[in-house]
Amino acid sequence: MITDLSHLKSLESWASRKTLVTCLNVIQETPDVKTFQFVAKPAQLFHFKPGQFIGIQLEIAGKKYNRSYTVASSPTRPHVIDLTVKLDNTGKVSPWLHDHVRPGTELEFRGPAGKFNCLDISSDKVLLISAGSGITPMMSMARFWCDQAVSKDIQFLSWARSTEDIIFRRELALMDYQNPHFSLEVICTQPGLKENWLGRRGRINSNLLLELVPDLTERTVFCCGPEAFMLNVKSCLQALNFDMNAYHDESFDPGGKKKASQIETQQPVNTQDKKLATGPFNLTFSKTGKTVSVEATENLLERIEAEGIAIESSCRTGNCGACQVNKVSGEVITVNETGLHQDRKNEGYILTCTTYLKSDVTLDI
Ligand SMILES: Cc1cc2nc3c(=O)[nH]c(=O)nc-3n(C[C@H](O)[C@H](O)[C@H](O)COP(=O)(O)OP(=O)(O)OC[C@H]3O[C@@H](n4cnc5c(N)ncnc54)[C@H](O)[C@@H]3O)c2cc1C
Ligand code: FES
């Protein structure tokens, strides 16, 4: 356990894209969620925008994995960075983090990155909507605003399965109690709760949303949670004639699970040319001249990695720009390219993590 923080008195600011960090503390938030607190090594002050995420690359059983985690802490407390991670028992990285990270464990962070943050998107009246571990970007924003005692009008709706699953329960209650501009509503979805829960129950719906936030249309909405939850939020808002330009969300889906259904609906269906609709297509790597056959539903980044080609990645959702490569020829479908600057697009770069082939393609790797 690191207890002497005297070395933090004179510090460098967080400037590098890769930062070695040491775990300081682990907090069991709920039965399947832990917060890991880290300091930089050597000590630095962490600068990031509330809502942004960092990337971690881990080698587990000889295989490299990249994952993104939102910084749940606030840049107003810059000495320590918190990652709050939900355990996915069938996943690769979250079980490793839950089992192995303890005080003294060293990791390397990449970033920070992400446009889903409350500095690039600013507003005087906000509505934070989260479900499950999607609370992490909201918590960073809420901590940031409350630490600064800003007069911003903050309404926070947080959904959890049961009372046991309410992440940051005590801190949220304290923020609600201490801040006149902060209003919290926690809603549990599971029936038959063990605890005598006096709060709201049930899933999100338009009536509930309007009842909880009557001035909804005046607010900027930040939303994060499971894909189905975010879709529900969007359709409720649309049903209430909410201006969707004021709606912002972040997906935690690391690119591998929703892609097939997205692609099925987005691929052009051309019965004249079945190959255009379904593939397979030839993918050529110009540096080696190697060509492989790729299905239309195969994620490009995953395929490049499967071919043993070293390629950077972090968010795996099209938000950070780490996985960009130059496309020499061919057509692709990209689901999200928020993380790619227009000038890079003009130069022919694509984000491989959210891209699927639409024809034979050659990449400059
Ligand atoms: C910007 C961003 C921020 C994030 N912030 C957070 C955060 O603050 N907290 C947090 O807990 N998480 C966060 N995540 C999610 C996190 O990055 C990981 O995706 C999550 O921890 C699961 O990783 P894993 O390695 O444990 O699971 P993975 O190995 O990625 O598997 C995830 C799930 O997919 C299933 N699966 C894997 N491969 C396949 C396949 N081929 N076909 C079908 N199913 C498959 C697994 O069984 C498992 O259920 C964030 C993600 C992004 C993109
Ligand atoms: S890995 Fe972040 S944009 Fe692809």
What this model shows, in words?
It is a single chain. By secondary structure, this protein is of the alpha/beta class. It is built from nine helices and 21 strands. The strands form five sheets. Strands 6-5-8-2-3-7 form a six-stranded antiparallel beta sheet, with helices on one face. β15 and β16 (290-294) form a beta hairpin. The longest helix is centred in the middle third of the chain and has 13 residues, at 135-147. Residues 258-277 have low confidence and may be disordered. Bound molecules: flavin-adenine dinucleotide (FAD) and FE2/S2 (inorganic) cluster (FES). Flavin-adenine dinucleotide (FAD) binds next to β6, β7 and α1.
Write the layout of secondary structure elements.
Layout: E1 12-13, E2 18-30, E3 33-40, E4 44-45, E5 53-60, E6 63-70, E7 81-86, H1 93-100, E8 106-113, E9 125-131, H2 135-147, E10 153-160, H3 169-178, E11 182-188, E12 200-201, H4 206-212, E13 220-224, H5 227-239, E14 247-250, H6 259-266, H7 274-278, E15 281-285, E16 290-294, H8 300-306, E17 324-329, E18 332-334, H9 342-346, E19 349-351, E20 355-357, E21 361-363
The structure holds flavin-adenine dinucleotide and FE2/S2 (inorganic) cluster (FES).
